[in-house]
Amino acid sequence: MSRFFRGGDDSSSESSSDEEELYSGSGSEDEQEKKPEVKKAANKFLAGSDDSDSDSEDESDDDNADEESESSDSDAGQQKKGLSRFLVDQESSESEEEEVEGTTKVKSAKDKRFDELEATVNAIQNGQKINDWGSISNELEKLIRQVAKLQVGNKAPKLFIKCIAELEDFMNETLAKQKVTPKKMNATNARGLNAVKQRIKKNNKDYQDQIDAFRKNSDEFMESDEEVVQKPKPTKLKFSAAAAGEAEGEDDEGFATVGKGGRTLQFTPESILKHLRTIMESRGKKNTDRLEQIKIMEKLLEVAATPYQKIRVLMTLISARFDLGSGTATSMPLEHWKAAESELASLLKTLETEKDHVVLEGVEEWDDDEKAPVIAEGEKYIKIPGSIVSYIERLDDELTRSLQAIDPHTSEYIERLTDEGSLYNIIFQGLLYYEMLQKDATLEVPQESLNRVIQRRLDHVYFKPSQVIKILEENSWKQIPSALDSSITPRTEANDAGHLINVLCNYLFENSDGIIRARAMLCQIYFLALHDDYYRARDMMLTSHLQENITNFDITSQILYNRTLVQVGLCAFRKGLVYDAQNTLQEICGSGRQKELLAQGVMIQRYSTVTPEQERLEKQRQLPFHMHINLELLECVYLTCSMLLEIPLLAQTGSSPDVKKRVISKTYRRMLEYHERQIFTGPPENTRDHVMQASKALAAGEWKKATTFIHEIKIWELMPNTEEIKTMLAKQIQEEGLRTYLFTYAPFYDTLAVETLSSMFELDTRKVSAVVSKMISHEELAAALDQVTETVIFRKGVELSRLQSLALTLSDKASALIETNERTLEQRTQGSTNAFNRREQRGGQRGGGQRGGRGGPRTGGNTQRQAGGTQFTGGALGAAVRG
């Protein structure tokens, strides 16, 4: 066809050859004679306006050709004239339509829907043959959507009625077989069967008359003619000011809430359950306007007339508000959180006043939306399915997520933190509600629900000082009627915070197990350590044996274990137990990952291979700022304790080459070596500089200067009883200065008067004698104490030969090589038990029987403990119990 659409200028040459080819071939002589005229007519038609510029001679020729063609057409028996020969007449078009109808049949939209319905029914029947309830559930949902378009009035297609009736019978048969011979289904089939059961139970009520007719006589039902009733055409909605003013559900601007089909929604007490059913079915689906659903439920709450309706609306409304914060990256909006908190309080208050309505887990749902349930004979309650503790936990989690997203150094964080008081009141009211349910023996209240509420209450108080807990308890009891009391935590004992923590923890010890019991133990230890009850906290930590299996618990429980361990170490430091504090804090502070282990920040390492998913989970575990332990204070305590232990040890190994070299804190040693390599050291600027300067002064025997450096650290002001802490540190520095002096200068003395040492270090003579006696008994000092003359008599050791010195050096290097190999093996085997046991045995052999330091073993294999809560029994706490 493209040859006919060329311009008229070049038709003289190219088109002529084409036309000759086109018209050559078969034909009579008359037709051959007519070819020039036909060609001119065709050229004129197809060339368009380009041929209008041709001369008059061509036009006259064209006119003559048209006249000749007309005469020939009339002679040929009503042939077409001129250009009309290219058009299709009516007779030919009708014949073509008849041919098309013979090959293709056009279906109406209704027929197509019936075909889809039949295909879905066949898919359900195929699923029944292979007992595939997952596919049956999906196809049933599809079938119900399809029949809504084919339904006329209340009458559904007979094929649909037959399908759902047979499906219900098949379902009942399957359930009966499951009861007689229980056979475990896979998870997909079980979920599909439950979904079909609920859907059939709800759906078949609407078609019960037709189903009964089908079961009465299926053949007659299927052969009867269906009444074809024309659906009324939808009329256009006309809104007037008067009608809009009378319609219920109208808002202040004069607009009414319009549902599907353009009908105005009527919010009446009778329609509440239907609206709730619609909203619950649309939850989780795409293109669902959650805010619009919340507005509808707020209006339903206003028109709720019975307690049952109010409870159902409140529960659905709270769940819908929680859906707004379902994203992992966003927290629940503040206004909706406050609304959910007030609605949950209203729900608990309603349940408290309406004692014949109870909300329990595992209760069968009420399916009849036409009427509310009534108390059955022999029953005392209307049971509503739901979980109060789940609402409390979700409200608590949303507050935590909100605090994580707010900058803690702003006033907004303080304002948000004030909501914790109202949340604690909700938790307390939930605990009272579950206590009330447990008093009735006819109700099956799961013990786990009560344990979860108590655990949430404990999580909000274990890290707080007693004064703050007392205020929280007083405010909570003010919201409770005077006639109501708690059987677990009575009103009369609300003023004693220690007793409250003890009662809650003991209740969980007796009535729970697993993670909840372990967390209760850790919370009580944390509270005791926070309030300076070190020995009781240490004994509970050791007797609980949590250090042995804490790695099998979840991440949040391991974080709580690390926090408790740190708090026990700080408590030991405040008690003046430097060795115990250093050994306890070594596990966390020696790893260099304090932020990560305490969930107080995400450490971005240089060569880390952390995926975005792992980083997101790590950020979700972070604790709110008000629960943090000050990391600078923690480092200061750890370095100070390490200084008081390492400086005398360095002096001992430096003056006595036969003494086995040990390292108490590798972190402290690295910092000290780095500080000594500096050419010029200016005045100390931070906590680390103060400790390093104090270490150098203490090693040089300038204990007063060391005390000054330590006292100048401003972080001590964050600890309670700051002056007592500084006094304790000054006393510790004096004693360690005395030990360092004796280790350093013992080879140069034959005898040394106790009075001289007392005046040098400003210590009492009895204290000096006690320190020297302990050093001699631990075989740290080769001397004797003459109590008559009050002098220290030093024994000169045998001077080592060259061969002996080299042998000791070789032994030290071999021991270091063995430790390096064991660490490498442990990393490759990921800390397997066998490798760890071999390391323990060798460490025990190397340190056999020697006692060093004050209050515990100071020699032997220094086993590096893993961060996260393992091997707590070895070290200072265990040694302190044994000693």
Automatic annotation (TrEMBL):
GO terms for molecular function: RNA binding; translation initiation factor activity; translation initiation factor binding. InterPro entries: EIF3C, EIF3C_N_dom, EIF3CL_C, PCI_dom, WH-like_DNA-bd_sf, WH_DNA-bd_sf. Residues 844-859 have a biased composition (Gly residues). Residues 625-799 form the PCI domain. Residues 190-217 form a coiled coil. Residues 827-836 have a biased composition (Polar residues). It is found in: Cytoplasm. The keyword Coiled coil applies. Residues 50-73, 91-101 have a biased composition (Acidic residues). GO terms for biological process: formation of cytoplasmic translation initiation complex. Residues 1-111, 822-883 are annotated as: Disordered. The keyword Oxidoreductase does not apply. SUPFAM superfamilies: Winged helix' DNA-binding domain. GO terms for cellular component: eukaryotic 43S preinitiation complex; eukaryotic 48S preinitiation complex; eukaryotic translation initiation factor 3 complex. Residues 102-111 have a biased composition (Basic and acidic residues). Component of the eukaryotic translation initiation factor 3 (eIF-3) complex, which is involved in protein synthesis of a specialized repertoire of mRNAs and, together with other initiation factors, stimulates binding of mRNA and methionyl-tRNAi to the 40S ribosome. The eIF-3 complex specifically targets and initiates translation of a subset of mRNAs involved in cell proliferation. PANTHER family: EUKARYOTIC TRANSLATION INITATION FACTOR 3, SUBUNIT 8 EIF3S8 -RELATED (PTHR13937), EUKARYOTIC TRANSLATION INITIATION FACTOR 3 SUBUNIT C-RELATED (PTHR13937:SF0). Belongs to the eIF-3 subunit C family. Component of the eukaryotic translation initiation factor 3 (eIF-3) complex. This is Eukaryotic translation initiation factor 3 subunit C. It comes from Cercophora scortea. The gene is NIP1.
